[in-house]
User: Fold this.
Amino acid sequence: MDITGHQLIAGTAHPGPGTPIDAIDPASGEPLAPAFPGASLEQLELACQYAAAAFDSYRETSLETRAAFLERIASEIEALGDELIVRAMRETGLPRARLSGERARTCGQLRLFARVVRDGEWLDVRLDRAQPERQPLPKLDHRLRKIGLGPVAVFGASNFPLAFSVAGGDTASALAAGCPVVVKAHGAHPGTSELVGRAIQRAVSATGLPAGVFALLHGSGREIGTALVADARIKAAGFTGSRSGGTALWRVAQGRAEPIPFYAEMSSVNPVFMLPAALEARDEELAQGFAASLTGSAGQLCTNPGLVIALAGPALERFKSAVALALAEMDASVMLSPGIHRAYVEGRDTLGRQHGVREVASSRVGSGPNRCQAGLFAVDAATFLASPALHEEVFGATSLVIECDDQAQMSQIAHALEGQLTATLILDDADLDAARELLPVLERKAGRILANGFPTGVEVCDAMVHGGPYPATSDSRTTSVGTLAIERFLRPVCYQNLPAALLPQALADGNPLGLVRLVDGKRESH
Amino acid sequence: MDITGHQLIAGTAHPGPGTPIDAIDPASGEPLAPAFPGASLEQLELACQYAAAAFDSYRETSLETRAAFLERIASEIEALGDELIVRAMRETGLPRARLSGERARTCGQLRLFARVVRDGEWLDVRLDRAQPERQPLPKLDHRLRKIGLGPVAVFGASNFPLAFSVAGGDTASALAAGCPVVVKAHGAHPGTSELVGRAIQRAVSATGLPAGVFALLHGSGREIGTALVADARIKAAGFTGSRSGGTALWRVAQGRAEPIPFYAEMSSVNPVFMLPAALEARDEELAQGFAASLTGSAGQLCTNPGLVIALAGPALERFKSAVALALAEMDASVMLSPGIHRAYVEGRDTLGRQHGVREVASSRVGSGPNRCQAGLFAVDAATFLASPALHEEVFGATSLVIECDDQAQMSQIAHALEGQLTATLILDDADLDAARELLPVLERKAGRILANGFPTGVEVCDAMVHGGPYPATSDSRTTSVGTLAIERFLRPVCYQNLPAALLPQALADGNPLGLVRLVDGKRESH
Assistant:
């Protein structure tokens, strides 16, 4: 299939007049054809106008139609075959196995949301029946369902060219909620974006939906992204990226005449607390697991373990030595883009130059452009507590070991942390009391707390939370992975005393859709 | 019981050093003893510090203890007896019947949240069990529950001195969610606030909870409110009041180092669409119902019908004449405070002076200070569409009739409206097609859509939505009335592979709390 470099709007392709983006093969530094000229503001207007026009019809599609649409997107992506994987490999430097797995996750998550849509629990249907005889005032009939917020802007993420991009989690959950989606493609994988975008366009057409349900725009710089979030027809947005980029767009969303929810996932150092008995017993095994988690995908995962907190002493020294040995045998992996590589080198160098920070280990330098040399650094707890700069994420395979004098200092570190996507406890039975002291602190800091594992690898399931207090995300009340994500794009509407002829089917007497409903305070099941 | 004018912090009373507030009897304009000197910033710090210290313990109280606490607050409020009603009457000018009803609603809503807490569905428990044999990667154990966001700031509202104030909906839902509450008392009913605050303090003590679970602060001007929202220990806030006040505090919440959810309910004109057949058949009856809804509580209800949209013609003329007759027989009611009365007079006068606006009717002038002279105005649809000033709320018993040429113009009005708490359809069978055209527009504009009634009177139930798109509220994803309100103060936390010894009881194997849980995608019931 030809990649044209065009915007995808309302079922057709539109050549853009803007500054062109070149996709770069980060392994070689060479540009890839074709160029992707950015969208004009008129094209952005058109995409938003079509999305707004499609909303009322799309949000009232039957649950079955909407579920089938999500499944059709998955099968259209699978039908792209190896072309998609090859293009994504060239644009991102990620290896085949990782991208094949990511495609499976992307399609799996579309199918999971199809199940969620069919299930209908997200409608949160509640009926309170009239009680005309109630004293002192009669009770009127009230019925509630949730509906989509409106057209949603989705920003493709650099580090998941499939699972957090054009047909990724934000798109899947917004479409599941009944919201048309306008995607701003990430400039680091525009060809991958177009292939997936065309797959969605085919699914829209095959399912007979209004063409405005989906659009894909390209744009260099921040103009198109900013204009998209500012457009009055857009009612929510999903973003995964840097703290500075997320914060800037979040401010645009809050500064509108009508502020809108802006779900930014931005920054997390994912602290790993290695408790004494576990570290003493398993230093070597932990070092292997840690080194693999640190360097997977060249460290370019939102849940990469960026901090290790442990007691200073022989066990920690053995752990650090074992990590150093493991890293020394590793080749440097290609990073996603020259920009991300530059930022990584600068972040790593800055960290190494901070007062009191010692370099512990490195992977090999690597040959060729844009290679990520993994790094492990160490600092004592008092210095960490006094240095806000050490709390910041270095995006890539770099981690910092915080050496504590005692358990109280480990607890102090936990209290001092900013919001996180994850927090990890490495523990044995003898560590349970220490873990019990840390747990309530970590619950207030992180969206996911894990034991005896490493935080990379995010399961797409009902119980997942990929979220957390600021700055991990802009909104800790939600998640961007897992079925709970659908709630980000919904709002409740109450219907009081509405004639049966006007009531949405989900709220009708007799429960024609067979939904789980809360009726007069009691669950009514299928 | 003596009203002392003190702040209530950590189970004790603290005289404030700040500028004193005098409660004013709006019926006479006379001040009421005692004075309420405002809190110092140190007292505010103390309240927030105690709230933060109480959070971990309070959020892990058993469901039964927390439910009993809410019920105890209700019975302590009832035990205040007539003293509470008399004080509230003097401070607000509201009549005894209204305040007795409001007390019943306040206590009923505390007891409703006790039911919600016991039920435990708000925990949203989800378990995805481990599948060690899964290919290509084993599935780990994941479990999710929701926990409280942290200490919550609640702003008392002027117009509901009980149901939206110290122990009102925001406090009840935040306490139900496991969040300590720091209330900023409204300056128009500080004595009522202290009486209710002391009732809550007694309930805290009787239930054996940490004293930091509740605090009450006074303060004139905006200093204390602003400092409260800015305090790093406060993790969410609830507000009901003016658009300017709500917007100012919302900006403080967004400008913090860690932005927080700020739930402001601000402004709504609550459009009533009177469709032709219904208006033709029932003009007289509609006029009676409308006049009662317009003038109840001197028009000082968030859901007061501020706009009537109908076709110009004889039926509308008959309706207006009947409203005029009804208003002419009504006495002007006392408004809540001199400040609200001043703003009402100015808002009403400004509306009357707008280009194209005609005065249709008024209630009597009334004798004594702070009386609300109800007003009905009319304007043609084209002028309304061209005049943004006519879309703004006049808080009090004033409404504007928009006279349309045809159905298309009624639809244009619907499209042009800002976000609303409510939208009303007055219809007969012959109006169904017109209603079907308006309904999807109104769903996008309002949190509650009602038929053949008037929007004042908000039922506290599972299916209620008292919310809506901006500027009706700052967050359309939620409601401030009804059981769904608990979700405003919760966030999800995922526990991955946690040893049984550390798992919260709600997530334990064997479901010891007997909760409704989602286990591997299926509902597991009690």
Notes: The longest strand of chain A covers residues 30-37. The domain at 271-451 of chain A is CATH 3.40.309.10 (Aldehyde Dehydrogenase; Chain A, domain 2). Chain A has a mean pLDDT of 97.
